Amino acid sequence: MERMTKTGARRHRAAALACALALAAATCGCSSANQPVSAAPSTTPVAAKADPPSSDINRVYAGFDRNDYPGDTTMQALRGSFAFTGYWVTPPPEERSNSWLGKRATLRQQGWGFLVLANGRLGKEILKARKTGTAPAQLGRNDAQVAVAAAKSEGFPAHAIIFLDQEDGGRLLDEQAEYLLAWTEAVAASSYRPGVYASGQPVPDDPGKTIDTVQHIRTLVKAQHLHDVAIFDYQDACPPAPGCTLHPKPLSAAGEPDLIAWQYAQSPRRPEITAACKRTYDVDGNCYPPGFPSVQIDLDAAASADPSNGR
Questions:
Q1: Quick count: other Cβ atoms within 10 Å of Cβ 18?
Q2: CA 243 to chain centre
Q3: Is residue 255 a contact partner of residue 215, using CB atoms and an 8 Å limit?
Q4: pLDDT tens-digit map of 138-176
Q5: Quick one: DSSP state of residue 236?
Q6: Strand, coil or helix: what is 299?
Q7: pLDDT band at 13 (very low <50, low <70, confident <90, very high)
Q8: Is the pLDDT of residue 5 over 80?
Q9: How many angstroms separate the CA atoms of 268 and 238, rounded?
Q10: Residue range 94-105: average pLDDT?
Q11: Residues in contact with 148: Cβ distance below 8 Å, sequence separation at least 6, in sequence order
């Protein structure tokens, strides 16, 4: 997810992007984004096209997410490079409105798969609500109801996965865990399946030990015998992430088992953990899709062209 306002352009690579600028990839000999690409590490910039379909068992599909809807024409053009897109059913982080609403039918007609996303609460927001009389668990249930109602309004089918955006990383504080698990249980009680977008980046925990948010969530779910939670892992550290490239590695390379999706590049990049893949990003630190030097994106990989089963 985009974490701040981003500016800049990829001017020096414009010549290499001519093929991707075409609205129909077939007219320039590009491979279809509906086909899985061979999962292999690469330092090729994001402007490069994905490899042709491969018989390799480690197949992945490339997708992206961003907070602002890029526009119908841009989305149609991006289908030449991507199989699925993040789709917010609530306002994204730090936003009061949601430009994705009402776009599912158009995107489905264009052939997109979906990662259905719902904004969560930062720890400070949960504490603020508690001070005004709303317990973390109740806040989670309230937010889940909003997300479920929005998903239904947008036409997402039953059993689609809605991913809660858990921005804070590391071990969850008690109030964060109460909020998150109340949210996932409330979604599980609906016609939808719960998922969480959370950090797989290890951070110091107990002396000599590390923990990541994905591990902590799974530990809590198992200990409390709760419904399974699908995981959309953000882990953009290089390695294991390959950087801003359309050649994602297998999901298993992220370091977490049984992932639905892996966000392996963010805009802007985090310099402290992406030095090894710095050259794959634009000089301004952002990641751009082929042919669109002003559309900052985060890059995702999944084993399905429709990770949320949202079609």
A1: 11
A2: 14
A3: no
A4: 999 999 999 999 999 999 999 999 999 999 889 999 999
A5: -
A6: strand
A7: very low
A8: no
A9: 14
A10: 95
A11: 162, 186, 187, 190, 191, 192
The answer to whether residues 288 and 266 touch, using CB atoms and an 8 Å cutoff, is no
- In this prediction the pTM is 0.83
Concatenating the DSSP letter of every residue in 242-254 gives --S-S-PPPGGGG
Buried b (16+ CB within 10 A) or exposed e, 252-266: ebbbbeebbbbbbbb
> How far from the centroid of its chain's Cα atoms is residue 21's Cα?
23
> Distance (Å, rounded) from C-alpha 203 to C-alpha 223?
22
Q: Per-residue pLDDT averaged across 52-68, rounded?
A: 74
Name residue 80's amino acid: G
Backbone angles phi, psi at 145, to 5 degrees: -60, -40
Residue in the block written with tokens 């007219």: 27
Contacts of 264 (CB under 8 A, 6+ apart): 235, 236, 241, 242, 243, 248, 249, 254, 299, 300, 301
Tell whether the torsion through CA atoms of 166, 172, 178 and 182 is positive or negative. Answer: positive
Q: Sort 251 into a burial class: Cβ within 10 Å, 0-12 / 13-18 / 19+.
A: buried
Q: Is the pLDDT assigned to residue 52 strictly greater than 50?
A: no
Task: Kindly list the distances between the CA atom of residue 252 and the CA atoms of 240, 255, 305, in Å, as whole numbers in the listed order.
Answer: 10, 6, 17
d(CA 96, CA 50): 35
Type of residue numbered 123: G
Q: Which of 16-20, 191-195, 201-205, 302-306 has the lowest mean pLDDT?
A: 16-20
Q: Contact at 8 Å (CB) between 175 and 139?
A: no
Q: Which amino acid is at 125?
A: E
